[in-house]
């Protein structure tokens, strides 16, 4: 099993780096050299317990794949790199966020982390696996085990990624691979998630023989060098160095940490006893990988359809409030970046309770559908968003044009509704709507909640001053 893990890792794991002429003398630009001269020693943090990717040995020295890569980059670029020792990955991340470290040696690029860091191109990619008890059948997808407790290393970016990809997944954060594997042995965890290299070494190092790799997780560890984003020159320097590593250099580092060394002479029987199971296992893995890819495609399509259904109002087929809550922050950021005018309107059907009480709820539902259809037909540009906010309330978000044009369009809709009849033939009613409007002034109203609250307050002003009118929020 240990040989299987390591040989498979050599086939599927890699350091995806760009080849350049490695023998040429390294030359920094005047700007880069000035930064390095002023900077002095570059402090870095790492995970002290993530072997073989990186760890601290008994002497407190940084060892592992990232140590060899960093040593190569330091020698090539003439960098003075100083290790800031920590007791855990969480502590390393905290120190880096507080600027007590200038860079992290191995970190996954996530949107949340970009508020503190810039990231180089990934320089290591290793498949993710799940380790379970030996009596567990092969696992083709995490979907099969979402209701089981699964261990994962504390503070890793994959915790948030998995929770977003698999809502309801039961993740239990642990402080070390050994702790997680022991919890699998004791039955506290169904399985332990992680990259193949680290879990394979943990199984071997701790002499664990009653657990096995039960399948791929469908993802990989893709790690980069993370640099403090308040010093962008450092990020550009590290990116140049990472891009300079040749395939031969990266393969030599991988071989140093991940190959199996046979110290004995050739044993023909041993060769066939070990090699044949490996070949069979690799063929099975290939079949599993193909099946997993097909399943993931189907699952992705199903999840996309389910996600869209969850963001639609079943009565009117408009988007619902959940969709607005997710979409509004992104649209405000886009508007702020591009200087796009934006107007949000809260629209309420006047005296709707009276309609329900007089004609019944099925008739009221028909009225809501017809108002929704008129809204969708009126605000149908690509930048428009129409939402059923709840009950008889709707929200319209208009992006582009001018504020005055958007408000005039909403005023025209109000007049159109007041002159139309809705309902069914022989049973029609006239309606009016009240509208509260706020414009997105990017200095003061870039907070989604504030924009909605202002429009809602203007709506109440419209209803309290006679209904069937549009009121623009007083606070601009």
Brief sketch in words of this structure:
46% of the residues lie in helices and 22% in strands. The chain is an alpha/beta fold and 476 residues long. Strands 1, 5, 6, 7, 8, 9, 10, 11 and 12 form a 9-stranded mixed β-sheet that branches.
Which key features would you list for this structure?
single chain, 19 strands, five-stranded mixed sheet, 4 domains, 476 residues, alpha/beta, elongated, disordered N terminus
Characterize the structure shown.
The chain is of the alpha/beta class and about 475 residues long. The chain folds into four domains: about 15-125 and about 225-265, Periplasmic binding protein-like II (D-Maltodextrin-Binding Protein, domain 2); about 125-220, Periplasmic binding protein-like II (D-Maltodextrin-Binding Protein, domain 2, 3-Layer(aba) Sandwich); about 265-310; about 320-470, Alpha-Beta Plaits (2-Layer Sandwich). Helix content is about 45%, strand content about 20%. It has 15 helices and 19 strands. Strands 1, 5, 6, 7, 8, 9, 10, 11 and 12 form a nine-stranded mixed β-sheet that branches. The protein has a five-stranded mixed β-sheet with strand order 14-15-13-18-19, with helices on both faces. Strand 16 and strand 17 (about 425-430) form a beta hairpin. The chain is elongated, with a radius of gyration of 30 Å. The termini are far apart.
């Amino acid at each position: 099993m240990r040989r299987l893990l390591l040989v498979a890792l050599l086939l599927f794991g890699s350091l995806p780096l760009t080849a350049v002429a490695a023998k040429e003398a390294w030359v920094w630009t005047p700007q880069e050299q000035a930064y390095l001269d002023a900077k002095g020693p570059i402090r870095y943090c790492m995970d002290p317990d993530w072997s073989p990717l990186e760890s601290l040995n008994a002497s407190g020295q940084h060892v592992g794949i990232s140590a060899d890569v960093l040593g190569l980059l330091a020698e090539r670029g003439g960098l003075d790199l100083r290790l800031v020792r920590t007791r855990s990955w969480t502590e390393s991340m905290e120190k880096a966020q507080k600027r007590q470290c200038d860079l992290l040696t191995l970190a996954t690029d996530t949107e949340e982390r970009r508020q503190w860091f810039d990231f180089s191109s990934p320089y290591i990619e290793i498949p993710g696996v799940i380790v379970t008890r030996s009596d567990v059948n092969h696992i083709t997808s995490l979907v099969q085990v979402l209701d089981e407790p699964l261990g994962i290393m504390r503070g890793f970016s994959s915790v948030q990624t998995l929770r977003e990809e698999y809502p309801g997944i039961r993740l239990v954060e642990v402080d070390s691979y050994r702790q997680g594997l022991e919890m699998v042995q004791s039955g506290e965890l169904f399985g332990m998630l992680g990259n193949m290299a680290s879990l394979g070494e943990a199984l071997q190092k701790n002499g664990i023989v009653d657990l096995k790799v039960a399948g791929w997780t469908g993802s990989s560890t893709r790690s980069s060098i993370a640099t403090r984003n308040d010093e962008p020159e450092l990020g550009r320097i590290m990116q140049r160095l990472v891009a300079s590593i040749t395939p031969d250099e990266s393969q030599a580092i991988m071989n140093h940490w991940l190959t199996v060394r046979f110290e004995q002479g050739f044993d023909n029987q041993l060769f066939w006893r070990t090699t044949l199971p490996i070949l069979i296992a690799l063929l099975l893995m290939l079949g599993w990988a193909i099946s997993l890819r097909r399943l993931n495609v189907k699952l992705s399509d199903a999840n996309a359809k389910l996600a869209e259904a969850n963001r639609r109002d079943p009565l009117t087929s408009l988007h619902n409030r959940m969709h607005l809550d997710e979409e509004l922050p992104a649209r405000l950021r886009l508007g702020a970046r591009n200087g796009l005018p934006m107007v949000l309107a809260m629209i309420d059907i006047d005296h709707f309770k009276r309609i329900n009480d007089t004609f019944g709820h099925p008739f009221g539902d028909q009225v809501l559908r017809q108002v929704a259809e008129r809204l969708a037909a009126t605000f149908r540009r690509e930048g428009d968003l129409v939402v059923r906010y709840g009950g008889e309330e709707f929200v319209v978000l208009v992006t582009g044009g001018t504020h005055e044009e958007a408000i005039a369009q909403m005023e025209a809709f109000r007049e159109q509704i007041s002159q139309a009849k809705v309902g069914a033939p022989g049973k029609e009613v006239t309606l009016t709507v009240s509208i509260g409007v706020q414009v997105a002034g990017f200095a003061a109203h870039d907070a989604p909640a504030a924009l909605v609250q202002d429009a809602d307050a203007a709506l109440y002003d419209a209803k309290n001053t006679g209904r069937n009118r549009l009121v623009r929020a007083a606070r601009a």
